[in-house]
Each structure stands twice: as C-alpha cells, then as structure tokens.
Amino acid sequence: MPEMYKTTCCYCGVGCGVIVHQQRDGKIWVEGDKEHPVNKGMLCSKGMNLHYTVMDTTDRLLYPEIRYSKYGPRQRAGWDEALNRVAAVFTAIIQRFGPDAVAFYASGQCLTEEYYVVNKLIKGFIGSNNIDTNSRLCMSSAVAAYKMSLGEDIVPGCYDDIELTDCIFIAGANPAWCHPILWRRIEAAKAANPNLVIIVSDPRVTQTCALATLHLQVTPGTDIVLHHAIGRLLIEQGCIDPVFIRDHTEGIEPYRQAVMQRTLAEAALICGIEEAAITQAAHYIGNTDKLMTMWTMGLNQSAIGVHKNLSLINLHLITGTIGKPGCGPFSLTGQPNAMGGREVGGLSNLLPAHRDLLNAQHREEVQQFWGGTTLSDKPGLTATQMFEALNSGRLKAIWIMGTNPLVSLPDVRMAEAALNKATFVVVQEVSNKPETLAYADVVLPAAAWTEKEGTMTNAERRISYLPQLTQPPGEALPDAEIICRFARKMGYAGFDYPCMEDIYKEHARLTAGTHINISSLSYDVIRRHRTIQWPYNGEMEQPGTRRLFEDHRFYTASGRARIHAFGDENQSEPVSPEYPLILTTGRIRDHWHTMSKTGKVNKLKQHIPSPFLEMHPEDAAERDIEQDAIVEITNRLGNVRVKVKLTESIKKGLVFLPMHWGKLFNNDSSRANNLTHVLLDPVSKQPDFKFSAVQVTRY
Ligand code: SF4
Fold it and tell me: Which residues are in the 4Fe-4S Mo/W bis-MGD-type domain (predicted)?
C-alpha cells in the first residue's frame, strides 16, 4: 500500500491542501485534499502536476560549489568548505565596510522557519536590516495600506466570505488564471446564488471577465479615479453607513472633499469608460451590505500602489462593509508564504510579529529576546534598492535565497550589471537554471517542496504544516539548516536548533501579546486541525480566527479605521510621441513566476508554449503589424522581441507581455522586465510593473 501524507501546495497564496501518495519505490503522485477547508479536493493545473517537479531531479543543484576568483570556474566543495568561505568573506566585508555592506534577498516561497532564521541572523547578529524578499514586488503596497487604514497588516476576512457575499469587486486581478481554486469557489458561489454581483475592473478582458456582471475596462493607472468616482456617487446617493462612519472611522471630511474634486463625466473620460458603467458599479456597491473587494498586482505594482489600495479599502469604510460575514477588503496573495514571511518580520522595515523597526520599544523587545547585537534603527535596503546599491558599490555582497531576480526584477539589465559588479554573490537555490548562478561565487544547494519540514501562511491568515516526505537529492539541505550552519560558522549563539519545530516555537513565542498571537500554537495542534487561522487563542472553539474586527475596534491608536484622502494623478512614466503605448506585464495560467518549477512540466508548457505580445488590432494596423508577426518592443531601458497576438480583448493603446520568460539560449530578447522601470511607490517601495511607455514596431 502506498503511504499517504497531507501537505500544502507550494505555488500560490491560495494555500490548497494536497495529499501526496508515495509508493514503495519512492515515486509520488498528488491529489487535492477533500477535507481541506480551502480547496475541498480541488487543485489547479499547477497543483495537479506538482509531483513532476519533485520526481524530476535532472535540474537540481546537488553539491555546494565555490569559485575563488571572479572569472574562474566553480568547483564542487563540501558544506564546511563552502560555508567557511562565505563566513570568511562576509566577516572581511563587514569588518572593512560595516554590516550594511552585506544583504540577503529571499523569497515568498521560503517557509516561515527559514524566513525566521535568516531575519534573526542579519538583524539580530550581523547588525544590518538589509533583508528583503521578492514579496516586495508583490504585496508591499497592500501591507502598507492595511497598516495605514486598519492599523495592522491584516486581511480581515476569510475565503468562506465568498459563499456569503452579495457583491465581489475584483480590481486589477485575474483570479481565474492566477488564483484558480479561489476562482472555482467564486464560480460555485455564483452558481448557487445567480444574484451574486461580480464587478471586474481591468484594462484587459481576461478569463475572470467571463463571469462578470459588469466589466469596467479602465485605462491603466486610473483606478483611484474610478474608486473615488464610486465613492462620490455613494455619498451623493446616501448609500453610505453614517453610523459606522461616525462611530468607527476617522477622516471622512477630507475624503468627501477629495472625491468631490472630479465630476462623474471627468472621471469617466479619464478612466476611458462610460459614465453609466461607473453609476452601475456604484449602484451595485451601494445596494448591498455584503461587499467583498479582491485585488492583486493591478493595484499593488504601481507608483501609486498604496493609494490605489487605500482608495478601494475606503469604499468598505464608508459603507461599513468590514468585520461582518460576506464583507471586507481581501488582497489576494501571490506567493504561498508572503504572509508567513511578514509574520517573522522578513522585510527590511519590519521586526518579528509585525513589530515596527522604527519603534524603539519593539527593537528593545526583540533584542532582549534574541540576545545578539544591538538592533539597527536604520531601515534596510528593499529589493530594488539592493541592486542599485550593488551597482553603485555601496553594497558589496548579496546572498540570494530561492528567487530569480534576473527574471523578476524591474530594469533587469541593471540588476545584471549590479551582480556583475558585486564583490561577492551567494546563490542558495534548488534549481540549476536561474540566471543568477552565472554570477555566483558560492552556490548552496537547497531542499525543495516535500524535502523539508515547516509552516506556511496563506492569504486568509491560515497556517499549514508541511512535513518532510522525501529526501533531498545529492547534498542539498533545507534552507533553514543552511542558514543556521552559516550562523554558527560566524560564531553567533542561538542558531543551534535540535529540530525545525524549535525554530517555529521561538517565532511563536515572539508573537505573544501581539495581534498575530500564535504563542500557544504547536505543530501538533496545526496537524490535528489540518490548518489554523491566526490569531490563535488556545481556548477557542473554532480552529483559529476566521474574521477580524467584528467588534469594529480597529488596531489604530484611536481604535477607528482611518479613511485616507489623496489626489488621483497617476505617477507612472507618461506615454510620449516616441513611446506612445502602455506596456503591462503579468502571469499566464499554467506558469509560475520565473518557471523554475512549471518549466519542468511538459503538460504545463503546452497551454502557452512561448512568450508573446498581446496587442489591439487597431494599434497593430497603425504599425502595419499582422497576426503572428515578430515585433520589437522598445523603450529607453531596452527591448524585447516576440510574436504578436492580436486581440480586441485588450484596450487600445495598451500591450501585454507575460513576465515568466528569462533568457532563452543565453538570449534575453523575450524577457519582459528589460522594459520595466525601477519607479517605486514612495511608501511601499513596490515597483511600477504595470505601466511602462513603449513603442512597438515590426521586426
Ligand atoms: Fe496551488 Fe494555488 Fe493552484 Fe491551489 S490555486 S493548487 S495553491 S497553485
């Protein structure tokens, strides 16, 4: 009989339960877990094919490697030799240039325990806050907006609200392709309740629009104008909740003035949609007391990403649709454990358990707990800032953990130049494919999904336990083990954990007394309940907390949710006669990020086998471009050459490139991020991936 184990999908923030069946010969296959509260047995195409990524080890890094000179070949080394080398170089750099001359760039794919130890290492012992993750590229605008409006980085609701709501407003997201199992739940909710209203705002007609009651095909960069126009109509038509506003919010008057700045006609013109469409959206939102909003990168990846988020959350605060069943703002997380990373403080401006780096008391609490060095009050470099600092020589060494910045960062050619200039590059990685390996002075082979133990938290605050089911190939080690061995080489105390749960327990203890308290939650309790939503109070009847703010007491200083007011101008690079089209980037259905996993699975490569540019036929005709022609997309940063796909489903003036492809045969001509800018939201430091001015010509 094959063995059967329960674990969690490692791709996206939906967090589906997976059952892994293992035969005597070690071969595995997977199926959805019917008892799991998230997916109830369903898996999307990526999840269904997970076993191929585990069983095909032909692309795996098997041994540590070192090169002693910048242009020499790397050679196989033992773990001691490799980590001694990294410790010696890091020590020398820190002694000469200070702790801020080194940095760690990690991943939303890391398990919580892995995030915890690397964050503890650099902040608590090396003495720098230079740790950031690729979650900066994904969720940081939502994080900042939650903190500014609700007083805490917190998703108030849960997936079960989908079955309870009357109206879902999906803004700048395509869950049908990017969060497929969540989408199956929305489809099922619509089938059960045909009156469920689904509003989608997106400049493209995506698969998600197939179910939309109303599609608002807005011009990119105009989300705030749209949300403000809806806010104005709700106020004018008396469709707000004055009691909720009076008793539980602050900031309504400046907001009222801000939304009154534009007439409906002006807003419609700027958004590129009919006035009647905005009125209809406001009608739907104003006539329900059960509103959910969902969003992802269309709002987050913007130079005004935080304000876009706040403008959507404001609609909940003026209508009182938060902290109730079927209600609430719900940011859809991209990575499987972006939330777990933030729980342990794994970003350059955070400390464990959502403590704030700039808060002296928070620093003191963590320092006392860790017992290492004095915590620096200087925020560390964020994802893109790290590569700019390598380029300028301010940062000397970078340790890249489980992410492929040479596909995923904006202005990626700059990032390449930065790694070329770096004094020392460590790449800790599962696969031998990432482009970063060409720049690595030391390569550290890491264990993959099913080969290590730990926890993750999905988009609805749900913590899952992932057991180790298979052995890593070669000498690959779990990421947390690698970091702890390195810390011991550096002579730091406090990294001698007998087992993975001891790391978890230390993290859990740090959450005591915070809004994300899981201090009494053990691996055993998680396993027994399958999953638990934080915060967790051991005496609860329910396994965890499904919904927050049911008492309408928010985590701001006043206890009131804050309605923010601001202008609506887009801050992206404007189009020009030279670069008249707007480029937006995004994901396709069957690939995940930089394809180091999905690129191994033939079935997943068949859906869309090669990169393409989506373009409106009228834009193509103006340029004498025919279907399937090879086109060159250019701007002041670089160029991309791909086949064009003409479709009326994209708004005129906009073109779309998928973000997954990096270098093919050492050629970067289909890498979307050759064209995206390092233009950041001023608060969240999240880049503006969704709006780049470009020209397209026939190649
Ligand atoms: Fe995995 Fe996300 Fe698909 Fe669920 S929806 S199976 S978590 S990729």
Answer: 2-58
